[in-house]
Amino acid sequence: MDINFNIIVIPSIIALTTILVLLIIRAISFKILNRWAEKTETRIDDIIVNILKTPSIYWSVAIGIYIGIAVSEFPKKYVIHLNKTIHVLIIFSITITIANILSKIFRNYVQKLNLQIPTTGLANGILKGTVIVIGVLIILNVLGISITPLLTALGVGGLAVALALQDTMANLFAGIHILVEKSIRIGDFIKLETGQEGYVEDITWRTTRIKMLPNNIVVIPNSKLAQSTMTNYFLPEKMMSLPIKVSVSYSSDPEKIERVLADEAKKAVGEVQGLLGDPEPFVRFIPGFGESSLDFTLICHVREFVDQYTVQHELRKRIFKRFKEEGIEIPFPHRTVYLKEKKE
Predict the structure, then answer these.
(1) What confidence tens digit (pLDDT) does each residue in 8-53 have?
(2) What is the number of other CB atoms lying within 10 angstroms of the CB of residue 93?
(3) H helical segments located in 189-305
(4) Which residues form the Mechanosensitive ion channel transmembrane helices 2/3 domain (predicted)?
(5) If you ran DSSP here, which 8-state letter would residue 258 be given?
(6) What is the pLDDT of residues 226-262, one digit of tens each?
(7) Under 8 Å CB-to-CB from 186, ≥6 apart: which residues?
């Protein structure tokens, strides 16, 4: 009975007491840290404090168990295995925590400075993967496993895997190429050569996701996207010109038409969402002489690609109403047919 008491009960009491004390210290520490983080302007301390809340509970429990095992009278071989297990779990937990902290800080840094760096799933995956690989190497070292033969085996095995997963590796490196080249960024509006268009939602290790205007997602392998021809409507900037063709009858005065169109477009600036006043809207007598009409082009500028739909909608209504007030005729195609009578 005394043996069981010394081996099990006393170490358990010490372990539980240690865990309880550490949890109390943890609670007090996080209250102080939360107050301190609220007073600072940066969000980095808030990120670190929030991420550490959950794993710190497991670390407190692990340290308590470790101390309990250290004062116990368990056989030495069992103590060694238990201690190694605790070391591995703590190292792995710290590795995951550091990876999450770096990922959050990276996203916060890019958003705060408004850098042209895509915070994509692939970028975060590379960052987290690097930290996890380092953590795994440390765990192997703790377990007494030599890393050199493992790296040699991975080199030979990696070549075989690369040959077997050519498509996957092609997508991975194509995704990295897209990120580095910055031809496509998260949030850009692009149009593919196949006709599909939408906002870039994410660039992962295998695919790029594009959210179309009807609220559907197009998933494209990175290798296909890197080889295709596309239009990025957000490069070099979001602002774009919008040409609107307007036709009037041949009886109209071109000077008057030019003045009316420009006047309506300028009055709409500030009233129609997305329509810009700088550069100022202007009119050109292009394409010119049509089969049944005089064809003008009103050229204005919109904030970004999707604003063109609202701007066209509002401007066409305003132009139609103004033409009615000014007595300007909008022609429709017509043909004059001559019938030749057959002589008897």
Answers:
(1) 777 778 888 888 888 888 888 888 888 887 777 777 777 777 888 7
(2) 17
(3) 222-227, 254-268
(4) 126-166
(5) H
(6) 888 889 999 888 999 999 999 999 889 999 999 999 9
(7) 118, 119, 120, 200, 201, 202, 203
Tokens 């840290």 correspond to 33
- Dig out the tokens for 254 from the structure: 């071109």
Peptide bond just before 287 cis, omega within 30 deg:
yes
Angstrom distance (rounded) from CA 213 to CA 209: 13
Inter-residue contact 236 to 220 (CB < 8 Å) = no
Contacts of residue 251, Cβ cutoff 8 Å, sequence gap at least 6: 329
Helix/strand/coil for 172: helix
| Token pair of 344 as six digits | 């008897």
Beta strands 217-221 and 230-232: pairing type? unpaired
CA distance 250 to 288: 11
- φ/ψ of 250, rounded to 5, equals -70, -15
User: What b-and-e string marks burial along 125-141, b requiring 16 or more CB atoms within 10 Å of the CB?
Assistant: eebbeebeeebeebbee
pLDDT tens column, 86-139: 888 888 888 888 888 887 777 777 666 554 444 556 667 777 878 888 888 888
Question: The tokens of 339 are what?
Answer: 């019938």
Q: Helices marked H in 143-280 — which ranges?
A: 147-164, 166-181, 222-227, 254-268
Q: Parallel, antiparallel, or unpaired for β 189-192 and 230-232?
A: antiparallel
Cα first-last separation, the chain = 135
Residues 6+ apart with CB under 8 A from 291: 333
Q: What confidence score (pLDDT) does residue 111 get?
A: 65
Contacts (Cβ under 8 Å, ≥6 apart) of 159: none
How far is the C-alpha of 256 from the C-alpha of 264, rounded, in Å?
12
Q: State the pTM of this model.
A: 0.57
**Residue length, the chain?**
344
